[in-house]
Design goal:
327 residues; alpha/beta; Rossmann fold; 2 domains; 6-stranded parallel β-sheet; ADH-like_C; ER; Oxidoreductase
Amino acid sequence: MFQGILIDKDDSGYRATLQEINDDQLPEGDVTVRVAYSTLNFKDGLAITGSSPVVRKFPMVPGIDLAGTVEVSGHPDYKVGDQVVLNGWGVGEGHWGGLAQKARLNGDWLIPLPKEFTAAQAMAIGTAGYTAMLSILALEHNGVTPDQGDVLVTGANGGVGSFAIALLNKLGYRVVASTGRTSEHDYLKQLGASEIIDRATLSEPGKPLAKERWAAVIDSVGSHTLANACASTKANGTVAACGLAQGMDFPASVAPFILRGVTLAGINSVTQPKARRILAWNRLAKDLDFALLPLISHEIGLSETIEAAPRLLAGQLRGRVVVDVNR
């Protein structure tokens, strides 16, 4: 038996509860992991509250991230005792995820936990930091360098935004952070933002083309914010789109792409090839200032997760929420 959050839906409604689960209820997989830490991401908040149809089958254990120790393995790459980390691959949506003390998974979804990280540090980074790193890799692939000008980070107070600012600053870029929370300016400056702008300047309908301002953009917001970011990106700049906090729509024109040569790079953090995942985590080990992790993240217990989910969706929690599944 182990503890986990189980989401169910039947004639009596939709509910998420913390309960005892039998090992024989675990789904199919060739690796069983004793989970040490997971996270509460925006997608997990949607799943737990039922605010959006994230969960594709019931019952479901949420949690799109996990870090822990291999307990049973039928996979050639892993043996009992190995430390592993997982991001994405539909866990917490179509396959039981990390918000439980055990997880049974497809070993191809795992990568070894880099030796530089503890399990708790890896989950402080989680999908948010991993997505930020994938976005930076996309900018670098397109030749964006610090001497080309400012990089805009939207959704700056969220997990992806927080890590994007910290990583870009460490790599020598001048970062402009977009946020709607004036109370968080000091936090964003501590992360490395050189300038802060009000998100309202980007979140309303705008023109097909605007004044060229950004050498590059990392956008976790979508909708009008992404459209305006593209419209104000410099010629031959790159916009990495990795989120939809404002919306999934993209009310834009082709003008920035055909008149300025702007590249819109989509960031898929769910199903990256293993080599790409390992590269991103190795770059995080090299390029992230670990001293910022306590500033970006805070820890809660598994028993607190259901109550925290609606607060996360309401924007009342800053940065990353790390979940110790054993308390």
